[in-house]
Amino acid sequence: MQRRGLLIILSSPSGAGKSTLARRLMAWDETLTFSVSATTRAPRPGETDGVEYFFRARAEFEAMVSAGEMLEHAEVFGNLYGTPKAPVEAAVARGRDTLFDIDWQGGQQIRRSSLAKDVVSVFILPPSLAELEERLRGRAQDSEAVIAGRMQKSRDEISHWAEYDYVLVNHDIDETEAQLRTILQAERARADRQPWLIEFVRGLNDEYAVRRGGEKT
Ligand code: 5GP
Question: Where would a tag sit more exposed on the chain, N or C end, judged by fewer CB atoms within 10 A?
Fold first, then answer.
């Protein structure tokens, strides 16, 4: 009996290291599937449709929502973002774990969905606001106004930290990555996530029976 796939939700304010951590986790475990969201925001330099996001016009995005194709969706920084439902349901049924880089609104919606029991949610906090701002500037991708907007929004995102199963302060990216791996390994080892154990232990019991039989003769 195969276990159901996990939904590993990573949230954090923009700039706290979440995307880097998601990339590293994907490189560490090639069985993980990254949930590619749809968004109405314009691609950044280097981003490819279907890889980082499915870039869609607002009308197309809204049509997907109306058709019930989104597991969750939310407005972030004036753009719409959402998780296509079909790939996630397929992964869960096949026992494949999916990684989500989504905001607190998406996290809340998935935790309230029919897939709630398969969710493991992790919130990443920055070590300080100074560090957060430095990382946003270091990306050199966004204008001053965008950076200021993200700093302002970070307070709102951080206010939802207690809704998550795990909270990590990202002092050191290597250390935080190691903690994430540990969380994933522990969650996979939970008794209720390994339905095949029933059969496995039955096999052990059969072995005991054979041994007992051997002792008698
Ligand atoms: P960015 O535009 O910097 O790639 O992402 C902005 C924010 O939107 C990030 O906090 C990211 O986690 C969030 N986000 C990305 N995809 C989704 C999604 O499908 N749903 C929700 N709710 N948030 C998302």
Answer: C
Query: How far is CA 2 from its chain centroid?
Result: 21
Residue 81, ligand 1, Cβ within 6 A = yes
What are the φ and ψ backbone dihedral angles of 7, each rounded to 5 degrees?
-110, 105
Q: Give the CA diameter of the chain.
A: 84
Neighbouring residues of 142: CB distance < 8 A, sequence distance ≥ 6: 136, 150
Asked if residue 216 has pLDDT above 60, the reply is: yes
Whole-number Å distance between alpha carbons of 36 and 49: 10
For residue 113, the CA-to-ligand 1 centroid distance in Å is 18
Tell if the pTM clears 0.85, that is, is over it: yes
CATH architecture label of 7-216: 3-Layer(aba) Sandwich (3.40)
Residue ranges per domain, the chain? Answer: 7-216
